[in-house]
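To close the section, here is one more complete example, presented without commentary so you can practise reading it yourself. The ligand is dinuclear copper ion.
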Amino acid sequence: MSSSLDPIVRLSLVVGIIAALILAGVLIALVVFTVRYRDPSRAQPPQIHGHRSLEIAWTAAPLALLAVIFVLSLVTLGQIGQGATFGSLEPPVTVSVIGHQWWFEFRYANGAVSANELHIPAGVPVELDLASFDVIHDLWVPELGAKSDVIPGQRNVMRLFTARAGTFAGACAEFCGLEHAWMRVVVIAEPRADFDRWLAAQAAPATATGRGLEILRSNACASCHVVQGQLAGTSIGPDLTHVGSRRTLAGGVLANAADAMRAWIADPQRYKPGALMPRVPLSDGDLDAVVAYLESLK
Ligand code: CUA
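Output:
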């Protein structure tokens, strides 16, 4: 199985072999000359200062070598960008990524919306369509070799691929304001069948019930959040339709659990100063009902 790292690994190998050959040549010459000329009584070797063809040779040879490496690097860049290594695989899964201060939104073609958690099928190329809601961000998943700026008013495309299932950490890699450091992403690569199941479940509207929903409706929550099928709001904040199924809250600041959710809603600015999420004054009972409702949105 190939990965998006393969062309980079191949290039490193070629450059590494060239460097090793040069190193070997220098070391062999060093040993030979040390042995041959170790006796000071021996005659000096012929002096060749100002030898024109030699000067041209040792200028031209590195130039030619660097030119070859430059061309190989260009070819590799092209392969990574255009996904040439994906040729024989399934058609890519496309996901729209929207950078916000300070969280990432992921929108799938079937209507599923996630936040800070990107599920992808293992062994299938993924094409991320990157856009920004506000300032310049940068999505970086180091282990998958993928990194691209996320620029307002511009669509960037990033290819992501992993042959093996697993969890990969990612983050925003472009300083984008106060909470730039808390713009984390979890990439979860699953076998295709598991991914398809997840995707279908995420696209389904919420079915949870409870007093918490009424409290969300009667407060300002809908001015930033949507719960598909239950709370018609806006997409300024994360879509909450399946928030209970996510691993983290607030761009990775908190692990998702009832007590963390409660603490976050009670005082967002304590955990993420500068975040757009305001403190909504709720009684303890109302807060409990909201937390119970949100955590049941699996
Ligand atoms: Cu977004 Cu740094």
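Once you have examined the tokens, check your reading against these statements. The two ends are 34 Å apart (CA to CA). The mean pLDDT is 90.
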